Amino acid sequence: MRILDYPGFPNPLRVRIALAEKGLSSQVEFVTIDLPAAEHKQPPFLAINPEGTIPVLQLDDGTYISECTAITEYLDNLAGKPSLTGVTPKEKAVIHMMQKRAEREVLYAVGIYFHYGTPGAGPAVEAYKLPQWEGRTQWGAFERQRAIAGMHYFDRILSNQPYVAGDQFSMADITLFAGLYFAAFAKIDIPDECQAVKAWHAKVSERPSVKNPA
Angle, to 10 degrees, between the axis of helix 108-117 and the axis of helix 171-185? Predict the structure, then answer.
């Protein structure tokens, strides 16, 4: 298997943590896509993933799988012993629901703020974002507040249970961790009052897969 990604960015981090959790890191060849140079937006890469996003998993038979959730589902079920995406129908449903909330309300919100409320990832990448327009910075500011509101939401959740989707570490935790990782990079701090999120973040940060992702 090969992973096409760029280390240090939040979505590649999600898959690298999943690989480490499953003990699969040594079975994967990592291929760096030059994200700052917008290689992921060029025709050769778009032929692999029309969405122009990383990471992408390439299987040994040549199949390409994009989207972090799809990649994680594949890796988690590869040996028939899922530990990140749920076993029962209820577990699967709750994990996917909470994963999507972490993605939409924190990770994606931070991403919009980063690209539209700050200089972003540099001119090569920003050329593929929406052009300058009157409401650009206001939209970025709105999404920054949305990310902070998302942190407050997850603080309420984590005040009553140890992990984002319940009693076990899951894909939902990986997504929220990546969102907070991106938030720190974008200089959005976890609010002081979100003590449950801070305690969860400290706990998750000590997991071997998080301390030493692939």
Answer: 20
